[in-house]
Amino acid sequence: MCRRWAGSVFLEIDAVPGTLKSEGPVRIYQSSDWAERASCGRCGSPLWYRLTAPEANYHAVSAGLFDDAAGFPLTNEIYIDRKPPGFAFAGDHPRLTEAEFEADFVFQTEEETL
Prior knowledge:
This protein has helices at residues 2-6, 98-102, and strands at 12-14, 26-30, 35-40, 46-51, 59-62. The chain is mainly β. It has one domain (2-113). It has a five-stranded antiparallel beta sheet with strand order 1-5-4-3-2, with no helix packed on it. It is globular.
């Protein structure tokens, strides 16, 4: 989903909910049973991705929003098993598969709880 939304990998910066302010129209949509995505209401650029379960506490903003993102080092990768061929970021940081990342959160649909 991130590749379709952002046109490539989604490079994100972890954010504390409630600490950022938008200055224009924002379009928010529920992209799954457990997450929402926001885009600029004017140009469509990705703004953020947020897990909606209160206990998840995961809110990430697009690194492309910052004029200089050099101060934000790459600290981890998620969904590494779904990365495009040829993508390999350098560095010694945690790399989580889809299953490893999602194991930290409750990702159940209503049908799975019946």
